[in-house]
UniProtKB/TrEMBL annotation:
CDD domains reported in the protein's UniProt record: Ubl_TECR_like
Family: Belongs to the steroid 5-alpha reductase family.
Subcellular location: Endoplasmic reticulum membrane
SMART domains: UBQ
Entry protein name: 3-oxo-5-alpha-steroid 4-dehydrogenase-domain-containing protein
Mode of membrane association: Multi-pass membrane protein
GO molecular function: oxidoreductase activity, acting on the CH-CH group of donors
Cellular component GO terms, alphabetical: endoplasmic reticulum membrane
Organism from which the protein derives: Glomus cerebriforme
Database matches in Gene3D superfamilies: 1.20.120.1630, Phosphatidylinositol 3-kinase Catalytic Subunit, Chain A, domain 1
Keywords (A to Z) from UniProt: Lipid biosynthesis, Lipid metabolism, Membrane, NADP, Oxidoreductase, Transmembrane, Transmembrane helix
Domain Ubiquitin-like stretches: 1-72
Main location: endoplasmic reticulum
Amino acid sequence: MQINIVSRTENSQKFPLTINIPVDATVDQLKQAIYKVVPKYYPDRQRLTINQSVLQEGKLLKDYDIKEGDSISFKDLGPQISWRTVFLIEYFGPILVHPLVYYFKSQIYGEEFEHSKMQTIAYYMIMAHFIKREIETLFVHRFSHSTMPFFNVFKNSFHYHALSGINLAYWVYGPWNAAGKHGSEREEWLIWTCLGVFAWAQISNLYSHIILRNLRPPGTRVRRIPYGYGFNLVSCPNYLFETLAWLSVSILTKSFAAWLFLVVGSTQMFLWAVKKHKSYRKEFKDYPKNRTAMFPFIA
């Protein structure tokens, strides 16, 4: 059958296009057909819609009641970059910044001093978090979308490179928190409690990511209802556990920079959780009604 592809950009020189495609073709096949005609627009760069519905990869055209001669709207999403690459770039910033600030303190602060126990433990906690995130990106995560717009990498990286990288490292490892300084020491019970909560939250976060990974077979975009540890209470326990991990860092360091990163990060994760929660409930009619989005019994 013939399908008309109409660009949302006025006066486009590449469109409209007429694509010949089998009646039982998938959205993926249609995107490949467009790509063959206009090589600039590889499949990940295309957004196709009909009657305000976005055509999802893996589905058949007939799922959208597309027939001979119908017109499909095309939007260029711009140059793309893989989600995996973006995550690796985001988390590499703090991994680079924190050792530089921690070990080259005399060059950065202009004086030599000894780090307090709090600073040392906070350093290893923060480094463990971001190294774990890099490992998860490489070996655990399976992404529902393979790419994002290239320029988003700068916006996404700012959150990590600036807030949890430069800003956090500078204020936590400074001479005002050095050994022997008033207010730099923490009671042993507080240190070990924060460290224990942090370790538990990180392990729980990893386990929730593994549960999500196992829901999606390799190379697919399959979505299923997650069950098990944490998921029986909330839709996004991974966000909850990450929030608790950073809460422990904030309590340990008593740094406004840590609290700022916690507030900004947890707010964003809560917004994502609400969106995913609504998506789950819309997609799955049997989705458990007792679950909340991110915080058990609250929201």
